[in-house]
Structures are given as structure tokens and as C-alpha cells.
């Protein structure tokens, strides 16, 4: 089949996007199916897999670490994240192959990879407890959280590329909506770090129902969300960012509702009184140190 010049951008996009190779389970030391096809003669090569690298990395993590650990989950995102960084880097502005088809690589391929990384962040935090055998669990310093750090660098590189050459990158990457999505993913990750730490150090199962019933988990979430809300509101006051202050206030409101609906159902007597007093003190702290910034155009008197 001959390739036409009109089809070159689509070919570049397909070559840039990395698809995770399915892993065969027929034998204990099975190779990824499409990776094995790349070892076969050229006439039987697997054209639909794009690149076997992700499959190889995932297979190595599965075969040479304990089963079901964070190593195998993190291995899936390493190559896509590195590809995003490479495609969006300044070095590739005038180099092959990105310089030949910049829109195909930096719009079609990069946008797809960024979306896949965002999906990975949600999947990893919802489904995995961060166990990184044979190493002990440490917050941040484990395979799952280090994968999130790498994904954060990939998102940052894509955003910087959009600011540098906006005509070559998806317009949505520089929008406010994308910023809110990244903030939501960061919030999910930070909560995941907290819950995984409680799971490993307080023996609370990393499942929804046990977490909801755990007094330690609910108290830790309330304190953590309150600290985040205070940090957002204080920062917004100093930077005069009213929208960010409103976000912090909304999170503080969620904490108050959570205290009444969930947390206080597990305590009574003096603990209930202390909880009410604590919420009141926090509200006073917010009002004193982080008043709401004025709207644009308003002048403080």
C-alpha cells in the first residue's frame, strides 16, 4: 500500500502514539504478544501496536517484581510520559520528526498521550494501594507516587510548549478548564497519598467501605482538607485571586458539612463539643488571615 502526502500527518500521529501491548498469559514467561511479533520476520510484523516499548517495560516490571505491586502499574505510564516530555521539549522544535509534522505530533499524538496519562492518574489512585515490594512503603518514595511526579513533569512540559508555540499544540492545554482538571488530579493524588499511608501504617483496607467507616481516615481527611482550604485562601488573599479563594471556601464548606454528616456520627459528648469549637476557631482564622479578595475593578478603601 503506497503512502500519499495527504496521509503523512495521520501516519506521523500513529507512529508517535504508544499503545500498551497486550500480555499473553499462556506461559509463565510469556512475552507481550505484539512485542513477540516484532521479533518475527518483517512480513509478519505487528503494525497495529505502534511501539513495543511500553509492553516490554510493563512485562519486565511484572516478571521481575512481586505480583500486583505498584511497579507494574507505574511501568505502564513511563514511556508515554517521556514521549510527552520529548515531543513538547524545545529540542524538538527544529528536529526530525516533530519539525516535519509538528501538528501531527504536538496535537494528535501529544493530546492523546496527555489524556491517557490523566486516565492513568485516576485509575492508579482508585485501584492501587501503592505496595512496592520488595521495598517498604514510603509516601512519595514509592513506584506509584514517583509515577505521578513524572506525569506532573509531562503535564508541565506540555503546558510550557503550549505557551512557547501555541499554534503547534492543542489550544485546550492552555485553557482555564485544563488548569482545573490538573488541580483536580493533583487533589486526587494528594488524597491518595494520605489514604495509602493510613492503609499501610494503620492497617485500614484500601477499599471504599472500610475507609468510609474508619474514624482515623475521616479525621485525617477533615484535617487535610482544612489545611488545603486554609492554604488556598491565604494564598489567594495575598495574590488577589478571588476565584482561588472561592475554591478554598467551597472546600472549607465541604469540611463543615462532612463534620456534621460523617465525622460527628462516630463521636459524642466532649468530642462533639471540641469538634464544634475547632470548626469555629478555623472560621475565625480564615476571617482574620484570609479575607475574600476584592473583585477586579474594585478598590479597597
Structural overview:
By secondary structure, this protein is mainly alpha-helical. It has two domains: 8-21 and 55-204, no CATH class; 214-292, no CATH class. 64% of the residues lie in helices and 0% in strands. The longest helix has 27 residues, at 176-202. It is flat, with a radius of gyration of 24 Å.
Summarize the structure.
By secondary structure, this protein is mostly helical. The protein contains eleven helices and no strands.
| Overall tally of domains | 2
Profile the largest sheet: none
Strand content: under 5%
Question: Ends: how far apart?
Answer: 73 Å
Total helical segments: 11
Quantity of strands, as a count: 0
Order of helices and strands, N to C?
Answer: HHHHHHHHHHH
Structural class: mainly alpha
Shape: flat
Mean pLDDT, as a whole number?
76
User: Radius of gyration, Cα only, in angstroms?
Assistant: 24 Å
pLDDT < 50 runs, ≥5 residues? 1-50
Assembly level: single chain
Explain the layout of strands and helices:
Elements: H1 8-16, H2 33-39, H3 53-64, H4 70-88, H5 102-127, H6 143-164, H7 176-202, H8 208-213, H9 215-239, H10 242-261, H11 270-289
Amino acid at each position: 500500500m503506497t503512502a500519499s502526502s495527504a496521509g503523512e500527518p495521520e501516519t506521523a500521529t500513529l507512529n508517535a502514539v504508544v499503545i500498551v501491548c497486550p500480555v499473553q498469559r499462556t506461559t509463565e514467561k510469556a512475552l507481550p504478544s505484539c512485542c513477540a511479533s516484532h521479533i518475527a520476520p518483517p512480513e509478519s510484523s505487528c503494525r497495529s501496536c505502534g511501539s513495543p516499548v511500553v509492553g516490554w517495560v510493563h512485562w519486565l516490571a511484572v516478571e521481575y517484581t512481586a505480583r500486583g505491586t505498584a511497579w507494574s502499574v507505574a511501568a505502564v505510564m513511563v514511556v508515554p510520559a517521556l514521549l510527552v516530555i520529548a515531543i513538547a521539549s524545545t529540542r524538538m522544535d527544529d528536529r526530525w520528526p516533530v519539525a516535519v509534522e509538528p501538528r501531527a505530533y504536538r496535537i494528535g499524538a501529544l493530546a492523546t498521550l496527555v489524556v491517557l496519562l490523566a486516565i492513568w492518574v485516576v485509575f492508579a489512585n482508585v485501584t492501587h494501594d501503592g505496595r512496592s515490594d520488595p521495598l517498604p512503603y514510603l509516601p512519595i518514595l514509592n513506584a506509584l507516587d514517583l509515577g505521578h511526579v513524572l506525569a506532573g513533569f509531562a503535564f508541565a512540559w506540555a503546558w510550557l510548549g503550549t505557551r512557547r508555540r501555541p499554534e503547534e499544540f492543542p489550544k485546550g492545554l492552555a485553557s482555564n478548564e485544563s488548569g482545573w482538571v490538573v488541580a483536580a488530579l493533583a487533589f486526587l493524588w494528594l488524597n491518595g497519598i494520605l489514604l495509602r499511608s493510613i492503609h499501610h501504617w494503620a492497617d485500614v483496607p484500601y477499599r471504599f467501605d472500610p475507609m468510609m467507616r474508619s474514624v482515623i481516615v475521616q479525621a485525617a481527611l477533615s484535617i487535610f482538607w482544612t489545611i488545603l482550604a486554609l492554604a488556598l485562601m491565604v494564598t489567594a488573599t495575598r495574590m488577589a485571586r478571588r476565584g482561588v479563594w472561592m475554591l478554598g471556601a467551597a472546600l472549607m464548606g465541604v469540611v463543615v458539612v462532612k463534620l456534621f454528616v460523617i465525622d460527628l456520627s462516630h463521636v459524642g459528648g466532649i468530642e462533639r463539643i471540641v469538634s464544634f469549637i475547632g470548626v469555629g476557631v478555623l472560621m475565625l482564622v480564615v476571617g482574620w488571615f484570609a479575607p475574600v479578595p476584592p473583585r477586579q475593578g474594585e478598590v479597597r478603601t
